[in-house]
Design goal:
The chain is 15% helix and 47% strand. It is α+β, with helices and mostly antiparallel strands. It has a four-stranded antiparallel sheet with strand order 1-2-3-4. The longest helix has 11 residues.
């Protein structure tokens, strides 16, 4: 599998670091595909990424709505 180009268009949330890694919620363009919202771990200089999830705008809106009802 060839490496796919990842272009971070906007960083929405950067979570505090846990050691040398931190999580970010970004708007990302993967290759020639439409931008998606992406939540994953990154090292300090973003040269390495961990596994993550991508969400459409509609999925992120639904997640935001559902998280608002969770009592922590």
């Amino acid at each position: 599998m060839a490496d796919m180009k990842c272009e971070i268009l906007d960083t929405l949330v950067e979570f505090p670091a846990d050691g040398e890694w931190h999580k970010e919620l970004n708007l990302v363009k993967w290759g020639d595909y439409s931008p998606k919202y992406d939540l994953r771990s990154w090292n300090g200089d973003r040269s390495k990424m961990g596994k993550g999830i991508t969400l459409s705008k509609e999925e992120l809106i639904l997640l935001k709505k559902e998280l608002g009802g969770i009592h922590l």
